[in-house]
Design brief:
Order of helices and strands: HHHHH
Helix content: 25-40%
Low-confidence stretches: none
Mean pLDDT: 87
Shape: globular
Structural class: mainly alpha
Strand content: under 5%
């Protein structure tokens, strides 16, 4: 579980091809793929480990940083589900989610 890295947005960094190729160290590191990520900025400024800790929205689709055209396109291309991941983190907790994602080899 310690080697499973979850991004602010709920994606599993440690299962990502860019992470595995050492081109990205995850968004919690000094070498993230996207240095200008609005989700990272917002969550880190507020002291959140993931966006699941945010209580500003009843539905993450209301957050335009998480749910916008670019993120939906990203999700479609890479078959990832940020909103689903954040809901799972909120439901089961981050540690349990890491175990769950550690058994899954998709981002």
């Amino acid at each position: 579980m310690n080697n499973v890295i979850i991004a602010y947005c709920g994606l599993c960094c440690s299962n990502c091809g860019m992470f595995l190729k050492d081109r990205c160290k995850g968004c919690h590191s000094d070498k993230p793929m996207n240095r200008n990520c609005k989700m990272k900025s917002c969550a880190s400024e507020r002291g959140f480990v993931t966006c699941a800790a945010c209580g500003d929205f009843t539905d993450y689709k209301e957050c335009k940083k998480i749910y916008n055209l670019v993120s939906r396109f990203f999700g479609f291309i890479f078959k990832s589900d940020r909103i689903g991941s954040l809901n799972k983190i909120k439901e089961m907790g981050l540690d349990a989610f890491k175990v769950y994602k550690g058994n899954d080899k998709k981002i």
